[in-house]
Amino acid sequence: MSASELFSVEGKRVVVTGGTSGIGLMIARAFVENGASVLISSRKAEACASVAEELSRVGECVAVPEDLSSEEGCRRLADAVEERWEALDVLLNNAGATWGAPLEDHDARAWDRVLDLNVQGVFHLTRFLRPLLDASVGGEPPYADPARVINVGSIDGLRVSGMETYSYSASKAGVHHLTRHLAWDLSPRITVNAIAPGPFQSRMMAATLEAQGEWIAQRAPMRRIGSQEDMAGVSLYLASRAASYVTGAVIPVDGGLSTCLASWSNAP
User: Could you tell me the sign of the dihedral formed by the alpha carbons of 263, 118, 126, 195, in that order?
Assistant: First the structure.
C-alpha cells in the first residue's frame, strides 16, 4: 500500500472542537488542507466565522459556535452535526480550559470551570456523536478503516508540571484514562486515542512561553517548541488508515520532555 493511500484523510468528515486557535486551529487546518470536510466549533461565534472563512479558501470548512462545558451544549453541537452529515469519520476533542492559582485559592469554581469542559465535554460529545461515528463504518469486523475519536490531553497529565494548575493537570490525566476506557468500550468500530502535547504556541501557553519559553526549549531533548507540522502529523496519522490498529494510546508530542528526561525541575 502506498504512503499516499495509507495516510490519506481525503473525503473524511471531521469535527474539531476548540478549532479556532492554537492547537485546534493547527489540526483543523491540517485536515482541510488534506482534503477532509471539517466542522469547527468554539464558544466565540465571531472567531468561528473568521476561521471558517479563512479555511474555506483552501478546502471545505464550516463552523458551529457552541459552549461544550455543559451536557446541553454538547447535545446541541451533536444535533448540528447530524443535520449536516449522516455519518462522521473523525471526532477530535480539543476544546479545553486551564486555571492557575495557589492551593489555598483553588476553589470549587476553578475545578468546575476546568473539568466541566476538559473531561465532561469530551465524554458527552463523544456519547452524543457515537451513532454518527458508528454510521461511518460499514460491513462486519474486522474493520479496515474504523471511525476515530482523538482526544487532546497534555503532558501535564503525565507528569507534574511544577505549576499550580491542579484542576488542569487532573483533568488531563482524566482525559487520558477516559480515552483508554472509551477505547475498550467503542471497539472495534471506533478507535479512541489521545495526543498529549507539550509546549506549543497557543493562547493557553502564551504567558508561560513568554516567561519561560527559551528555558523550556533548551530543556527539551529536541531543543525547541512544537510546530504546526508536529501537531498536523500526529493528528493526520491517528485519523488515517495507518493507525487503524492503534487504540487506547496516549501519544506524547513534546520533544521528549515527558519521556526522555532523567529528572524534571522547575525553571529558576
Answer: negative
